[in-house]
Structure formats: structure tokens, C-alpha cells
């Protein structure tokens, strides 16, 4: 069961704290025999410098990986 995992900061949460969340998610995945095809950790969709994070788990597929890794000119997703 490969997954794509996004730990998205809401704007005021430091990257170091988002990485702590990612560490706990990775530990959970290991305990449950899940593998992560790709990690996305950072501020992707913020909410006016709000504290906190969102966690998104998506089943891995070639189409989704291609879309995520395709170059874009967006300021917010690169």
C-alpha cells in the first residue's frame, strides 16, 4: 500500500514542527506496514498565518506522482 503523504502548514507553524509531525506519521506507517512513495512537507495551502497543519494521505498512482512532480510556474507549489 504505497501512499503519498502531505503535511501542509497553515502558515505560522515552523517547518521544524511540520517535520516532527512527518516523523510521527512515518513511525505510524512503519508500524502498519505502509510505504510512502513521496513526502510533501511545507506550506502549500496556508490560512492567513494560522497555526496548525493539515495531513493528506493519497493512494499512490503514476498519474498523481506525475502531476505532483511536473514543473509549474506557480509561486505556491514548486
From TrEMBL:
Transferase in keyword set: yes
Example GO BP: glycerol catabolic process
A GO MF term: glycerone kinase activity
Cellular compartments per GO CC: cytosol
Occurrences of domain DhaK (ranges): 1-77
SUPFAM superfamilies: DAK1/DegV-like (SSF82549)
Pfam family, one: Dak1
Keywords, comma-separated and alphabetical: Kinase, Transferase
PANTHER family the record matches: TRIOKINASE/FMN CYCLASE, TRIOKINASE_FMN CYCLASE
Name listed for the protein in its UniProt record: Dihydroxyacetone kinase
